[in-house]
Amino acid sequence: MNPLIVCVLDMDETLGTYDRQTFHVRPKIQTLINLLRYIKSDIILWSLGRDEYVQRIVSHSLPDICKYATKIFGHTQCNRAYERYNYYKASEHIRIMYDCDIFLMGVDDKVSQNMDSQYDLRIQIQPYKQPNPNDKAILEVCEKIINSLMKAQDLRHEPLPVSEPSDDYVENVWVY
Asked: For residues 109 and 13, is the Cβ–Cβ distance under 8 A?
């Protein structure tokens, strides 16, 4: 059985940037959300921002994240994870929420600082510091997700052992 796919997304400088007035959503976010929905991934938004700020930005600027996210974590959950696991976005903090195997992915502009090495896939993304309609970093993230999932699936599908025919072996014959 294939594991459940879970994707942890950072908000600030990963999905967009905030200039004290407006949260500017990174181009192609809808493509990423569509991909995650297509592969039936749980989406967890996890931001170091204050809880109220995260809720406000998600509600107003990232409505599809709000609509499809399994969980939305802010500063409070980051602190809990850090106190327990020494990482703000610790994999174990996510894994204990599930009673099944998961393929855990993380997308963050500070992946090595915020996410431990027990993620199945950690994707470092270029920080999005100012609006740029030509930014294609999210498409590169989508490509990395697709390629990693295909590789993981290939590893799970080992070739079947070939058995030798026995004396009571009868070959199926198709008649047309």
From this structure: yes
- Which residue in 91, 123, 92 sits closest to 109, CA to CA? 123
What phi and psi values does residue 92 have, to the nearest 5 degrees?
Answer: -65, -30
**How far from the centroid of its chain's Cα atoms is residue 68's Cα?**
13
pTM here is 0.85
Distance CA 107, CA 122 (A): 6
Residue 171 has pLDDT above 70, yes or no: no
- Give me the amino acid identity at 3: P
Going from the C-alpha of 65 to that of each of 46, 72, 80, 82, 117, the distances in angstroms are 11, 9, 22, 24, 25
Measured between alpha carbons, how far is residue 88 from residues 50, 74, 139 in Å? 13, 10, 26
SS (HEC) of 110-162? CHHHHCCCCCCEEEECCCCCCCCCCCCHHHHHHHHHHHHHHHHHHHHCCCCCC
